[in-house]
Write a structure and sequence with these properties.
Shape: rod-shaped
Structural class: mainly alpha
Number of strands: 0
Largest sheet: none
Number of helices: 2
Distance between the termini: 24 Å
Length: 154
């Protein structure tokens, strides 16, 4: 009888430990997803800030060109502004891409943590099932032993 309860207790303890690990992994998955969302928001803000800098730079270029008496809408002055605008846009896209890559890493981490949580939940269920089978086996073993002893006395 004691062995049966021991089997059940051990299985329940293992299941509880796996369930605790599953909850931790699940919480880590939520945290990683939230971090990805925050990172994307930061990336959008950083991109918007870069676009503001780009516009300010374009205004400064135009003002300098106009102050020099250059026709700002033709020739090398226009080429300079177009090149500056393209480089500024490239900077903004690079910033957005960098933040998106970071967010992707957090999303992958979230998925990995959720998968680990699911594995722990399966292990918890397996530990409980195993303890039931072990307890049942102990019960049968005890019954078989009792039958053998009765047969010896009979």
């Amino acid at each position: 009888g004691v062995q049966i309860f021991g089997n059940l207790f051990q299985g329940n303890s293992q299941a509880n430990a796996y369930n605790a690990q599953a909850q931790i992994a699940h919480n880590n998955a939520i945290l990683a997803q939230r971090t990805a969302d925050v990172t994307m928001g930061e990336g959008e803000q950083a991109t918007a800030n870069q676009q503001l800098k780009n516009r300010a730079m374009m205004g400064a270029i135009g003002a300098e060109q106009a102050a020099s008496g250059v026709d700002v809408n033709s020739g090398s002055a226009l080429d300079t502004k177009v090149s500056a605008a393209q480089l500024g846009q490239l900077d903004a896209l690079t910033i957005r891409s960098d933040y998106a890559r970071k967010a992707y890493g957090y999303r992958v981490e979230s998925q990995n943590q959720q998968a680990q949580s699911d594995i722990y939940k399966s292990q918890a269920a397996g530990a409980r099932t195993s303890s039931y089978l072990d307890a049942f086996g102990s019960l049968l073993s005890g019954t078989d032993k009792a039958a053998t002893e009765l047969a010896q006395f009979g």
